[in-house]
Amino acid sequence: MSKKQNSIFKVIAEERSHQDEKWGEQNHLPVKWICILAEELGEAAKACLENDHTSYYEELIQVAASAVAAMESLDTGVKSVYNNRGGMAQRCADRCLALLPPENQQEKPCES
To answer: What is the enclosing helix (H) or strand (E) of 35?
Structure first.
């Protein structure tokens, strides 16, 4: 990994820490994460179109950090939703559990 890449990943990790401090742990369904990512990407696009290179860079960091948060919550968030809701949310959680790597999949946690 290059020095530049290490520097970028460090900034993304710092933004993730900032997000956790500001919002706490966020466990959303994937559709909510897509909305969050779209909003962040929209802000990056706006900065790009306005030739605001500083804001563009900062927004890209937020896009990347939000994508990391979405991946983090794929395991914990989906299982949490599965335990606490039924109906449509449960069907969505079933689909999302199928996206997890096999080593992270468990039996349906709400069934004994």
So the answer is: helix 30-49
Q: What tokens were used for 24?
A: 């706490």
Tell me the two tokens of residue 16. 């993730």
Encode pLDDT of 62-74 as tens digits: 999 999 999 998 8
Which amino acid, one-letter code, is at 5? Q
Burial bucket for residue 78 (CB in 10 Å: 0-12, 13-18, 19+): buried
Domain boundaries, the chain: 3-101
Closest of 87, 108, 93, 85 to residue 32, by C-alpha:
93
- Please give the share of the chain, as a percent, with pLDDT higher than 70: 66
Would you give the DSSP letter of residue 110? T
